[in-house]
Design brief:
heterodimer; A: mainly beta; 11 strands; B: mainly beta; 6-stranded mixed beta sheet; 4-stranded antiparallel beta sheet
Amino acid sequence: GAGVSQTPSNKVTEKGKYVELRCDPISGHTALYWYRQSLGQGPEFLIYFQGTGAADDSGLPNDRFFAVRPEGSVSTLKIQRTERGDSAVYLCASSLKGTSPGGGEQFFGPGTRLTVL
Amino acid sequence: DAKTTQPTSMDCAEGRAANLPCNHSTISGNEYVYWYRQIHSQGPQYIIHGLKNNETNEMASLIITEDRKSSTLILPHATLRDTAVYYCIVRVSGTYKYIFGTGTRLKVLA
């Protein structure tokens, strides 16, 4: 079946602009995660959704970052007033068992590479 | 806070076992240890996870020490396609925040 998809695959923007990054999780997966990965580093947790609600947004770096999942499926990560330091690969993952004790296997998308000039 | 420590890089001869260690001395009692790998330009791929008992699946084996402060991922017969960055991951207790760390870059040599 189809895996997690993310669009666009690459996004180049100018400092100060607004961007939206989209994630289509695997059908039926209620848990959805966003991560950010800088060059040479491991993925860094941003936010977790269980269904439509953000159950844990403790990883969002500041109030310029916001994410939504209005119908419990597709999610959009929104970044306002982008800065050069926001340049990274933004990864989305979905899971069947987000709330189980082990959390469950996460299936990752290919990521969106964001470059802020 | 939850944290993992892994060697930066390792080499392994093709066909031999690759043993990748991870230290997670601050892990909470009810949190699992997860292993993922990431091949260049792709999203991470799940390998295996465990709580306290050793685990095995078609990809790998996971050995967790009795005190749960460290674990070892074993790829029994490494192939060139196993060249990747391997991450040992734990979750911050009481949250959904998974900590990846910087991982081990495994290079399988022909």
